[in-house]
Amino acid sequence: MPATEELLQEIIQHYDLPGEQLQILPLEKGLINHTWKVSRSQGEYILQKINTHIFKSPESIAYNIKNIGTYLTRHHPRYFFVRPVPDRNGNEMIHEQEGYYRLFPYVTDSRTLDVLQSPQQAFEAARQFGLFTFHCQGFPVDTLKITLEDFHNLTLRYQQFSQALASGVPERIRESKDLIDYMVSQRSIVDIYESIKANPAFQVRVTHHDTKISNVLFNSRGKGLCVIDLDTVMPGYFISYVGDMIRTYLSPVSEEEGDLSKIVIREEFFLAVWKGYIGAMEDLLSQEEKEFFLYSGKFMIYMQALRFLTDYLNGDSYYKITYKDQNLLRTRNQITLLQQLLYKEPALKALIST
Ligand code: GN1
Ligand code: MG
């Protein structure tokens, strides 16, 4: 539920902010949380309401961000990290009339991108995600709270898919037989994930888990400034980072594209992700982890295809849809992307072999 103007004004009263209150305007960014821009005579802010249907424990988000913020301020004071503004009582999250809110300073001369246009932007974004984990290296990762249980647990996603095959909408199961068969045929991607979990060469690190391009702030010269939207920061593997960048930065069209011929892998964007991420994380990644750079793309694309297909088979209960069979189209889209990646695998591997 969007909040009323009155309620928003009330929330602002929790803070001790300089200047007079001028305006609160909605910012149409993001599908999950509601966001507003707060303008005062001295300074601007971003106010955000957490979506508690998805994030059942908003306090966990606040807890993680506060601890990471404190750690970064102490150990890497020059690393740019946007912390929520504390209210008069020092709280970084406010609970008001069933809703949870937080306020961020608006970073001057910053902007977000909705669509990735150049390899340089891919490089900058990959670098910022890498730098975030790099600077969190000494942070005790086990103390992070889990804000979304089993978020990137591919084993569980496969189980949910199998469950949907048993209890989903029968007509949909019949109609999507070719897609189901394909997903089953690629099950080895899950087996590899399981071997990664059992392999000590793969470290669990502080991981952002949502590398979409709009989660990076850029300045007017196109330089990456920092990562934002830390709600899904949890312990994780580097394949979650690199995988979702491969999934969302390499193709010129999004997961919503129905013309499958437009789904292609752009090699120069792959190379940019490699250079940006490895440039920041080189010293922390094991040789074995680096060898799974390309696998991480298969991991995330396959997982996303599984999640869309599972949701379709279950009657569209998770992802927002605006037309019938949208989740089926998204599944086809992601399967095509996976096939394109597999097709290009030798060329991509050659690009990054050193
Ligand atoms: C959801 O809404 P958005 O784009 O931030 C989903 C991601 C998926 C993505 C696919 C909490 O994220 O895991 O990759 O859709 N987030 C959640 O578009 O399920
Ligand atoms: Mg989305």
Kindly describe this structure.
This protein is α+β, with helices and mostly antiparallel strands and 354 residues long. The chain has 2 domains: 5-105, 2-Layer Sandwich (Phosphorylase Kinase, domain 1), CATH 3.30.200.20; 119-353, Alpha-Beta Complex (Aminoglycoside 3'-phosphotransferase, Chain: A, domain 2), CATH 3.90.1200. Helix content is 46%, strand content 13%. The chain is built from 12 helices and 10 strands. It has helices at 5-12, 58-75, 119-135, 154-167, 170-175, 177-185, 188-197, 238-249, 267-281, 287-291, 293-313, 326-352; strands spanning 21-27, 34-40, 44-49, 94-96, 99-105, 110-111, 205-207, 216-219, 224-227, 234-236. Strands 1-2-3-5-4 form a 5-stranded antiparallel β-sheet, with helices on one face. α8 (238-249) packs antiparallel against α9 (267-281) and α11 (293-313) runs antiparallel to α12 (326-352). It is globular and about 60 Å long. The N and C termini lie far apart (52 Å). The mean pLDDT is 95. 2-acetamido-2-deoxy-1-O-phosphono-alpha-D-glucopyranose binds at residues 31-32, 54, 148, 210, 255, 304.
How many discrete domains? 2
Fraction of residues in β-strands = 5-15%
Q: Name the CATH superfamily classification of the largest domain.
A: Aminoglycoside phosphotransferase (APH), C-terminal lobe
CATH class wording of the largest domain: Alpha Beta
Task: State the distance separating the first and last CA atoms.
Answer: 52 Å
Q: What's the order of the H and E elements? A: HEEEHEEEHHHHHEEEEHHHHH
As laid out across the biggest beta sheet, the strand order is 1-2-3-5-4
The Rg value, from CA coordinates, equals: 21 Å
Helix tally?
Answer: 12
Helix content: 40-55%
Please tally the β strands and state the result: 10
As residue ranges, the low-confidence spans are none
What is the SS-derived class? Answer: alpha+beta
Shape assignment: globular
> Do you know the CATH architecture of the largest domain?
Alpha-Beta Complex
Q: What is the CATH topology descriptor of the largest domain?
A: Aminoglycoside 3'-phosphotransferase, Chain: A, domain 2
Largest sheet: 5 strands, antiparallel
Give the names of the bound compounds: 2-acetamido-2-deoxy-1-O-phosphono-alpha-D-glucopyranose, magnesium ion
Mean pLDDT: 95
